[in-house]
């Protein structure tokens, strides 16, 4: 009920007044107190079309060999109808539901009940109990940083099963990919709805809640800043990192296993995707304690944007390169493969060093060296909603002297490298895709017609 009182008092913030004779901004770093028409229109668009976008990409691969144009052409030419496409889409199955429930439950157990031990023997790794940034209400949350440990345990079990125990097929994720999509959507909507209800009636900290009075904006962007259950289960840290990012590398491994099953080999392009994206995932978990100081944790509230996005958007769209290579296996020439590897590693280097420079500068308050010299910076100030004036330093040395957020350049280089694995050069040698209806799914997703003829 304290949150409802906080909601009523939000109106009073509009009249927070002046300091030094100037009216303070009604805004604040993070999500808004009020919603303009453009923000509302954008949010309604995302709520309506983001799930359809994910479905369209996955359906295109399932029924049209990853062609994004052919479904539209078929619809416009009258060759097929939306009902035909929908009827050929695999439905939710008990098997997929069981797999997904087991997966999420396993990640919850690894997150909540197994304290981190990796920081005790891995030099340079920061794990265990760490403090986050100060929230707007002045709270400093503590987190159990054990993502790297969860990733290692999960993948050890995966490889042990693939090599020795054979309890399930390594292709299990691909074989149930669309039924698992429905499970991921259900979880995304359930956790987002629960987070909104929790924000209204039993928030973890009522003073860190934000209400605009607009249902769609509050549902999308979230009400609670750090929703938690108990002392350690933090919604933002769990859903941002687990189960989606831990699954990222498993999904790619399942794609590689399916390519081996269908075509008798794993191409070097598939290996590149697994290696380059695997480095990115490992970087995330190695630096999970640093992640506590990023925008996702420090400024975003937890709503549909993070809840559904982490459950569906991330695992289903970030892994499209590997999915495409299952249907269109590409064997790169040596020079092309090496070039893509260098591009991806260079992008990762820029991404990592740029982030490290900013983190080092903040931790030492500028008392450090960037590229062998004391960093340069500019002094900035800003005034918060309550009229308090704050000061900050913006570094202008290193990569941050070249451009603001040069880490995004590294990110883009990495993304380009992923895509070049199958579409970057005229000299690509493409293996003939097989029509393998009998082996494609082994009946696990009830897919009766892959419509390869549409390619």
TrEMBL record:
<feature type="compositionally biased region" description="Basic and acidic residues">
    <location>
        <begin position="1"/>
        <end position="14"/>
    </location>
</feature>
<feature type="region of interest" description="Disordered">
    <location>
        <begin position="1"/>
        <end position="23"/>
    </location>
</feature>
<keyword id="KW-1133">Transmembrane helix</keyword>
<feature type="transmembrane region" description="Helical">
    <location>
        <begin position="330"/>
        <end position="351"/>
    </location>
</feature>
<dbReference type="GO" id="GO:0005789">
    <property type="term" value="C:endoplasmic reticulum membrane"/>
</dbReference>
<dbReference type="InterPro" id="IPR001171">
    <property type="entry name" value="ERG24_DHCR-like"/>
</dbReference>
<keyword id="KW-0152">Cholesterol biosynthesis</keyword>
<comment type="function">
    <text>Catalyzes the last step of the cholesterol synthesis pathway, which transforms cholesta-5,7-dien-3beta-ol (7-dehydrocholesterol,7-DHC) into cholesterol by reducing the C7-C8 double bond of its sterol core. Can also metabolize cholesta-5,7,24-trien-3beta-ol (7-dehydrodemosterol, 7-DHD) to desmosterol, which is then metabolized by the Delta(24)-sterol reductase (DHCR24) to cholesterol.</text>
</comment>
<feature type="transmembrane region" description="Helical">
    <location>
        <begin position="269"/>
        <end position="286"/>
    </location>
</feature>
<feature type="compositionally biased region" description="Basic and acidic residues">
    <location>
        <begin position="438"/>
        <end position="455"/>
    </location>
</feature>
<dbReference type="GO" id="GO:0047598">
    <property type="term" value="F:7-dehydrocholesterol reductase activity"/>
</dbReference>
<keyword id="KW-0521">NADP</keyword>
<keyword id="KW-0752">Steroid biosynthesis</keyword>
<keyword id="KW-0153">Cholesterol metabolism</keyword>
<dbReference type="GO" id="GO:0006695">
    <property type="term" value="P:cholesterol biosynthetic process"/>
</dbReference>
<keyword id="KW-0756">Sterol biosynthesis</keyword>
<keyword id="KW-0472">Membrane</keyword>
<feature type="region of interest" description="Disordered">
    <location>
        <begin position="434"/>
        <end position="455"/>
    </location>
</feature>
<comment type="similarity">
    <text>Belongs to the ERG4/ERG24 family.</text>
</comment>
<keyword id="KW-0560">Oxidoreductase</keyword>
<dbReference type="GO" id="GO:0016132">
    <property type="term" value="P:brassinosteroid biosynthetic process"/>
</dbReference>
<dbReference type="Pfam" id="PF01222">
    <property type="entry name" value="ERG4_ERG24"/>
</dbReference>
<keyword id="KW-0444">Lipid biosynthesis</keyword>
<keyword id="KW-0812">Transmembrane</keyword>
<feature type="transmembrane region" description="Helical">
    <location>
        <begin position="177"/>
        <end position="197"/>
    </location>
</feature>
<feature type="transmembrane region" description="Helical">
    <location>
        <begin position="148"/>
        <end position="165"/>
    </location>
</feature>
<feature type="transmembrane region" description="Helical">
    <location>
        <begin position="37"/>
        <end position="58"/>
    </location>
</feature>
<comment type="pathway">
    <text>Steroid biosynthesis; cholesterol biosynthesis.</text>
</comment>
<dbReference type="InterPro" id="IPR018083">
    <property type="entry name" value="Sterol_reductase_CS"/>
</dbReference>
<keyword id="KW-1207">Sterol metabolism</keyword>
<keyword id="KW-0443">Lipid metabolism</keyword>
<keyword id="KW-0753">Steroid metabolism</keyword>
<keyword id="KW-0256">Endoplasmic reticulum</keyword>
<protein>
    <recommendedName>
        <fullName>7-dehydrocholesterol reductase</fullName>
        <ecNumber>1.3.1.21</ecNumber>
    </recommendedName>
</protein>
<feature type="transmembrane region" description="Helical">
    <location>
        <begin position="92"/>
        <end position="114"/>
    </location>
</feature>
């Amino acid at each position: 009920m304290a949150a409802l009182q906080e909601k009523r008092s939000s109106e009073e913030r509009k009249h927070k007044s002046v300091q030094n004779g100037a009216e303070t901004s009604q805004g604040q770093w993070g999500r808004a107190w009020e919603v303009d028409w453009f923000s509302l229109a954008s949010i309604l668009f995302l709520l309506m079309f983001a799930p359809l976008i994910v479905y369209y990409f996955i359906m295109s691969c399932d029924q049209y060999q990853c062609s994004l144009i052919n479904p539209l052409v078929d619809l416009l030419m009258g060759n097929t109808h939306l009902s035909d496409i929908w009827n050929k889409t695999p439905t939710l199955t008990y098997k997929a539901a069981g797999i997904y429930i087991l997966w999420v439950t396993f990640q919850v157990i690894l997150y909540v009940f197994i304290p981190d031990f990796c920081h005790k023997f891995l030099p340079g790794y920061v794990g265990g109990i760490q403090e986050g940034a100060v929230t707007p209400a002045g709270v400093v949350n503590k987190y159990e940083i054990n993502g790297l440990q969860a990733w290692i345990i999960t993948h050890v079990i995966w490889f042990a099963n693939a090599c020795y125990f054979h309890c399930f097929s390594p292709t299990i994720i691909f074989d149930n990919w669309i039924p698992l999509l429905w499970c991921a959507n259900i979880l995304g909507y359930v956790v987002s709805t629960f987070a909104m209800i929790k924000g209204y009636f039993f928030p973890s900290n009522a003073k860190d809640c934000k209400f605009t009075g607009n249902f769609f904006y509050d549902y999308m962007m979230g009400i609670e800043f750090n929703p938690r259950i108990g002392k350690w289960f933090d919604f933002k840290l769990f859903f941002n990192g687990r189960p989606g990012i831990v699954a990222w590398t498993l999904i790619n491994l399942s794609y590689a296993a399916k390519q081996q099953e269908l075509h008798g080999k794993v191409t070097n392009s598939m290996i590149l995707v697994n290696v380059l994206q695997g480095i990115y995932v490992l970087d995330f978990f190695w630096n999970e304690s640093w992640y506590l100081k990023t925008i996702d944790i420090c400024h975003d509230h937890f709503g549909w944007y993070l809840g559904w996005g982490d459950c569906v958007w991330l695992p289903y769209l970030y892994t499209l390169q590997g999915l495409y290579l299952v249907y269109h296996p590409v064997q790169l020439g040596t020079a092309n493969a090496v070039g893509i590897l260098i591009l991806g590693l260079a992008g990762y280097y820029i991404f990592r060093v740029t982030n490290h420079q900013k983190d080092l500068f903040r931790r030492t308050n500028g008392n450090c060296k960037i590229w062998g010299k004391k960093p340069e910076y500019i002094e900035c100030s800003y005034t918060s909603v309550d009229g308090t004036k704050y000061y900050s330093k913006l570094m202008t040395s290193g990569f941050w002297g070249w451009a603001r957020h040069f880490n995004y350049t590294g990110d883009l280089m990495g993304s380009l490298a992923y895509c070049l694995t199958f579409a970057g050069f005229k000299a690509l040698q493409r293996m003939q895709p097989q029509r393998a209806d009998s082996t494609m799914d082994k009946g696990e997703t009830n897919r009766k017609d892959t419509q390869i003829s549409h390619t």
